[in-house]
């Protein structure tokens, strides 16, 4: 099923190809996409939720630029919980409350155990899974073990008639204390306690107790 969706995304020009620029350190086995890809199993009511009627007030006038971020392998400090994986870093100072990029992937409503599946609607069970296709957003780590608190957050936005999940710098007043994200700083969100609790119980069922790095 996912293979067919990847092929469809490639045909529609949303996927990577040698003619398109793919960011540095992008894994070759993952499809790089520039817009949402919709699972062909989504129902018409789920699709209507994902395409709300646009209104001039709602329509986002800001287009994020992927030049704001870079994907980096994590080689230090040795205590970094995602050591030897990748993370997403700011290439310049990002002001408080500003949009960084959208989290892209496959919009779906199937159960998923993917580590790259971000919930868009809990009520409808719709998620954005970036395990097989996505953009730089899939490299954003959870702040735990990296810094005292998150410096970014996921927040929905409407782009034209598309419902998307934006990644925003924490605004003034939240735990970022209004400073924004400095050049070279790792961009971290909170995945929520549920993400880590879920993984904890999976390991207990397997009878395996690993390090924090999953
Ligand atoms: C959405 S991915 C983030 C990108 C990932 N580091 C990579 O290189 O593909 C989520 C996975 O990253 C790792 N991760 C992210 N934040 C972490 C943290 N604070 N502590 C431990 N592992 C983390 C876990 O393996 C998690 O399942």
TrEMBL record:
Region of interest (Disordered), residue spans: 1-23
Ranges for domain SET: 64-192
Top-rank taxon: Eukaryota
InterPro entries: SET_dom, SET_dom_sf
Name recorded for this polypeptide: SET domain-containing protein
Organism: Glutinoglossum americanum
């Amino acid at each position: 099923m996912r293979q067919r969706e990847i092929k469809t995304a490639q045909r529609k020009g949303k996927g990577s190809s040698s003619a398109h620029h793919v960011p540095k350190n992008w894994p070759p086995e993952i499809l790089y996409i520039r817009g949402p890809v919709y699972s062909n199993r989504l129902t018409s009511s789920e699709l209507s939720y994902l395409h709300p009627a646009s209104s001039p007030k709602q329509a986002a006038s800001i287009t994020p630029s992927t030049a704001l971020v870079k994907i980096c392998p994590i080689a230090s400090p040795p205590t970094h919980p995602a050591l030897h994986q990748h993370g997403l870093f700011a290439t310049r100072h990002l002001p408080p409350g500003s949009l960084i990029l959208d989290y892209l992937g496959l919009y779906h409503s199937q159960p998923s155990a993917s580590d790259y599946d971000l919930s868009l609607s809990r009520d409808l069970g719709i998620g954005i899974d970036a395990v097989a296709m996505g953009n730089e957003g899939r490299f954003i780590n959870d702040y735990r073990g990296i810094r005292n608190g998150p410096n970014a957050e996921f927040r929905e936005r409407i782009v034209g008639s598309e419902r998307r999940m934006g990644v925003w710098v924490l605004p003034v007043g939240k735990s970022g204390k209004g400073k924004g994200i400095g050049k070279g700083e790792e961009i971290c969100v909170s995945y929520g306690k549920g993400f880590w609790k879920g993984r904890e119980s999976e390991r207990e069922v397997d009878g395996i107790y690993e390090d924090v790095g999953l």
